[in-house]
Design a protein that fits this description.
single chain; 245 residues; alpha/beta; Rossmann fold; eight-stranded mixed β-sheet
């Protein structure tokens, strides 16, 4: 049976969607069958990050409500055939989530994929609750910004109400310049969130370009791509070094 990992953050701008797309690709490159699931019902962007916005015609509500199967709704990536996307409904579409529907979707995903990475919406709304209910593990994304660290702590506290397994922290968008300017460290982020560290992702100026072009970082061998590859190895239980900033 596959594993479902929810990727969450307390606020926007932490790099959560970029992390989800690139870590999923890194797992797929290791021979895993991987589904990216967008649970951001109001502001879905994972289809853009993967370059699949023109092909994602059905969403997870279609599967939950029986209008199509998971196989029909999950869109394979053209360049990476073991990587799939199941997108969220459009923002203006009414949606009622049921426990039965969520559990059925999670069961179908575990049967067909080795890994599912859920891009959970920032905050603690309906999409976040759906992701937390489905997840076997959770990764909380933060930056070294004080408000982001506080929100990561709040997110970790909220997750305690759900039957998730392990919860880990990833500190993203890290650079020496930012650390010096904010007078902070990676350890400060770990202490603020109260979570064990899974990885560090460096700030990479090429990330906005990749998002706008629908490119994952691995396609251009960018610096941050190595961080995602190392994190994917740790998710798989392998040893991998932390990125040096």
């Amino acid at each position: 049976m596959g594993k479902i990992i929810a990727v969450a953050s307390g606020k926007g701008g932490t790099g959560k969607t970029t992390f989800t797309a690139n870590t999923a690709l890194a797992l797929a490159a290791m021979g895993q069958r991987v589904l990216c699931l967008d649970c951001d019902i109001t502001l879905r962007n994972l289809d853009l990050a993967l370059g699949l916005s023109d092909r994602a015609l059905m969403d997870f509500s279609d599967v939950m409500e029986g209008r199509c199967t998971l196989d029909e709704a999950a869109v394979p990536h053209e360049k990476y055939p073991s990587l799939f996307l199941l997108t969220a409904p459009m923002a203006d579409r009414p949606l009622t989530l049921s426990v039965t529907g969520i559990q059925g979707l999670a069961r179908a995903i575990r049967e067909k994929f080795d890994w599912c990475l859920i891009d959970a919406p920032a905050g603690l709304g309906q999409g976040f609750q759906m992701a937390a209910c489905m997840a076997d593990q959770v990764i909380v994304i933060t930056t070294t910004d004080v408000s982001a660290m506080r929100d990561a702590q709040r997110t970790a506290a909220e997750l305690s109400a759900f039957p998730t397994g392990t919860v880990h922290l990833v500190v993203g968008r890290v650079s020496r310049k930012v650390l010096r300017a904010l007078h902070t460290t990676i350890d400060d982020a770990i202490d603020a969130a109260g979570l064990p560290l899974l990885g560090v992702v460096p700030e990479d100026p090429d990330v906005p370009y990749c998002l706008n072009q629908g490119l994952v970082l691995r396609e251009r061998n960018y610096y941050a791509a190595r961080a995602y590859e190392n994190i994917a190895k740790r998710i798989m239980g392998q040893k991998a070094p932390l990125m040096k900033i």
